[in-house]
Design goal:
The complex is a heterodimer of chains A (about 210) and B (about 525). Chain A has about 210 residues and is an all-alpha fold. Chain A contains 6 helices and 2 strands, in the order H-H-H-H-E-E-H-H. Chain A has a two-stranded antiparallel ribbon with strand order 1-2. Chain B has about 525 residues and is mainly α. Classes of the chains: A mainly alpha (about 210), B mainly alpha (about 525). At the A-B interface, helix 1 and helix 5 of A face helix 5, helix 6 and helix 7 of B. The structure holds copper (II) ion. Copper (II) ion (CU) binds next to helix 7 of chain B.
Chain lengths: ~210, ~525
């Protein structure tokens, strides 16, 4: 497993290509979320008061708890990458498992929040029963909330699937200190998804908290 | 006769094509798919050009007409033009031009073709289910509140095709950075590679924004989460901003690769080193960069602030500088070159003329006050067809003719090639030049009926379209015939420089028996005559 693929000259070239490819992919992800953030920023400025009030419909304590879960998972991911570099297979499996379990916990809490919103009739397009002068802007805010956190949660689910696959590969002993670009790249992806949440949390949950 | 092993006869099974990771075979897969869509999009154009022969709406009703021009736009832009040169010629040539055995990520390359097929299948489903009528721009609220057509399906198809485009761009960027042969420094790269690199940057940076915009559109229509809905405080204009943030740069996805092809052809058939290599290389990057700052010129009459309009107007003028640099350098390359008039050269010269006219009329449109007069008229239609058809399609066909001997190992009929270039040039101008006049006289685009006084020019345009259509069928026929009856091309029929000409035609699967080492700059034409 330590020969390069046929079209590469050596393993170094292959590793560099994989890393650059991942960074370019993350740039596309930044632009993808960037469009969403730009749209939100625009409405946040035009409907500031309404959005600040609507933000209070979200429970910042749940969001903060989830932020802690996600940051811990990123720590586990960093440790997994280190284990892969050092060739410690048992540690690698352990940390990959920890990362994906924490990720799953985050997604579970997210869906619990969604269920809670549904029970309070706060889901635009399906079951929305807010009355009063800010009703329409509240609907707009919650629309953003569901789209932004939904797209983020989708990225989490994809990440968890990748980590589970890597865990299985690690169990079979696929990775070695020379050959673990997949773990490195999964790490970059996981940290990226984490950072997106670091921006989403204050933007959505803390906007009304002052 | 017996040919040595090449990429075409390495394996004849169907699965060896559908599961190939060879960039050359994937290029052929793309070539076949986009040729199909070119004729599908063309068929829609034939229908509405026929409708426009007479002033009243007699052939098709207004709804069908709307669906036809939407189908034409969506198919031609997303399923033909955007993949055309990058995914066919770029895929085939980039690794060979830089002395590599394949792209950096061959499996990803195959995946991007499958995403293209999946996305185009979804878009085709939308058309078969009755089509959509929003125009290729999917403007809200046409696409949200007022559309009763298959917007969600169509938009999802385009969304998926977008990922195929992103993956191609990503692959090209990494390949250009990491896979170059020893000695092949950045300033020894062929200018086609520079153009592809600039294109890839746009694909990677702009397409995701289209992705999220279309996703928001689907959320609004499919889930009722209104983000562009004015009834709940949303702003339909935001859609236009996000859409053009992608789609103006996308216009450069549809022209930069063509400029790269023209640079290769002009220098080869002038037998002269290209004039001003670094200027052409950097002007590609400048066009890519400026392209991200001009989207507002599509919204001069949409209620955008007047100050924003002025800034967007000035920035749009700036794009003319790198574009003109290219045209001047090509012209200077021709000056005192020993020019020969082979088919690819005719297409390339056609490109320069038509692109120049298309670019100049772009300046007319970028001028705020004039734009208010010609906005949403046939002037705009003529302008962007001069760029996209007169520019990109001419360059694409020029490139296909230039590298056809390399791709297939066969020479096509040179006489028919020249005829096709001439017929297409004449047909194109007859189709679209009258539309400049029509637009200036005030005929709005996107209507199936029009006042009587516009008929003469419309008949001219339709007549031109039929010549143009015949012109496009010609290469389709004689290129196919060349596969059976063409003479063997040999390694380098044009005596061109460039690494791709150093391997046999068609090339072996591995491209090069040994990875070449590069010792000189690109385009060492006429070096033997130098004192
Ligand atoms: Cu534009």
């Amino acid at each position: 497993m330590t020969t390069p693929a046929h079209h590469f000259e050596d393993l170094g070239q292959q590793r560099e290509a994989a890393a650059l490819g991942m960074w370019v992919f993350l740039v596309t992800e930044i632009l993808f979320f960037g469009g969403l953030f730009a749209a939100f920023a625009f409405y946040r400025s035009t409907h500031y008061d309404a959005f600040a009030r609507a933000a209070n419909l979200l429970d910042w304590r749940v969001g903060a708890g989830n932020t802690a879960v996600l940051i811990t998972s990123s720590l586990m991911m960093a440790l997994a990458v280190r284990a892969a570099r050092l060739g410690r297979r048992r540690d690698l499996q352990l940390f990959l498992a920890a990362t994906s379990l924490l990720g799953a916990l985050f997604v579970a809490v997210k869906f619990w929040e969604y269920a809670h919103k549904a029970a309070e009739h706060l889901v635009p397009g399906f079951d929305f029963a807010v009355e009063g002068p800010w009703a329409q802007e509240t609907r707009l805010f919650l629309g953003f909330y569901f789209v932004m956190t939904g797209v983020h949660a989708l990225h989490m689910v994809i990440g968890i699937c990748v980590l589970v696959t890597l865990w299985e590969m690690a169990r079979r002993g696929v990775f070695s200190p020379e050959r673990h670009a997949l773990v490195e790249n999964a790490g970059l992806y996981w940290h990226f998804v984490d950072i997106v949440w670091i921006f989403l949390f204050p933007m959505l949950y803390l906007m009304g908290a002052h | 006769m017996n040919r040595p092993d090449d990429y075409l006869n390495a394996d004849y099974s169907v699965s060896s094509w559908l599961l190939t990771t060879d960039h050359k075979r994937i290029a052929i897969l793309y070539l076949l798919s986009i040729t199909l869509f070119f004729f599908v999009g063309g068929a829609a154009a034939v229908l509405f050009r026929l409708e426009l022969m007479t002033p009243p709406g007699d052939l098709v009703g207004p709804e069908t007409y709307n669906k036809l021009f939407t189908m034409h736009g969506v198919v031609m832009v997303f399923l033909f033009l955007i993949p055309s040169i990058p995914a066919v010629l770029g895929n085939f040539l980039l690794p060979m031009m830089i002395g590599a055995r394949d792209l950096a990520f061959p499996k990803l390359n195959l995946l991007s073709w499958y995403l293209f097929i999946l996305g185009s299948a979804v878009a085709t489903t939308a058309i078969l289910m009755g089509g959509l009528d929003t125009g290729w721009t999917f403007y809200t609220p046409y696409s949200t509140m007022f559309a009763h057509t298959n917007v969600v399906t169509g938009v999802l198809g385009v969304f998926i095709v977008g990922f195929s485009s992103i993956l191609t761009g990503l692959n090209f960027i990494v390949t250009t950075h990491k896979m170059r042969a020893p000695g092949l420094t950045w300033f020894r790269l062929p200018l086609f590679v520079w153009a592809l690199y600039a294109t890839s940057l746009i694909q990677v940076l702009a397409t995701p924004v289209l992705g999220i915009t279309l996703l928001l559109l689907v959320a609004e229509r499919g889930l009722g989460i209104g983000i562009f809905d004015p009834a709940i405080g949303g702003d339909p204009l935001l859609f236009q901003h996000l859409f053009w943030f992608y789609s103006h740069p996308a216009v450069y996805i549809m022209i930069l690769p063509g400029m790269g092809v023209v640079s290769e052809i002009i220098t080869c058939f002038s037998r002269k080193r290209i004039f001003g290599y670094p200027f052409i290389a950097f002007s590609s990057l400048a066009i890519a960069a400026l392209g991200f700052l001009v989207w507002g010129h599509h919204m001069f009459v949409s209620g955008q602030s007047a100050y924003a309009g002025m800034v967007f107007s000035i920035l749009s003028f700036l794009v003319a500088i790198p574009s003109a640099i290219k045209v001047f350098n090509w012209t200077a390359t021709l000056y005192r070159g020993s020019i020969s008039w082979q088919t690819p050269m005719l297409y390339a010269l056609g490109f320069i003329g038509l692109f120049t006219l298309g670019g100049m009329t772009g300046l007319v449109l970028a001028t705020l006050a004039v734009d208010i007069h010609v906005h949403d008229t046939y002037f705009v239609v003529a302008h962007f067809h001069y760029i996209m058809v007169g520019g990109m399609v001419m360059a694409y066909l020029g490139g296909i003719h230039f590298w056809w001997p390399k791709m297939t190992g066969k020479l096509y009929s040179e006489w028919w090639g020249r005829v096709s270039a001439a017929v297409i040039f004449i047909g194109f101008n007859l189709t679209f030049f009258p539309q400049f006049v029509l637009g200036y006289l005030g005929m709005p685009r996107r209507y199936h009926a029009y006042p009587d006084e516009f008929q003469v020019l419309n008949v001219l345009s339709t007549a031109g379209a039929s010549i143009l259509g015949a012109g496009y069928l010609l290469p389709f026929v004689y290129l196919l015939l060349s596969l059976k009856y063409g003479r063997d091309a040999g390694r380098n029929p044009w005596q061109a420089t460039g690494l791709e000409w150093r391997t046999p035609s068609p090339p072996p699967t591995e491209n090069f028996a040994r990875v070449p080492e590069v010792r000189e700059e690109a385009y060492a034409y006429g070096a033997e005559e130098a004192p």
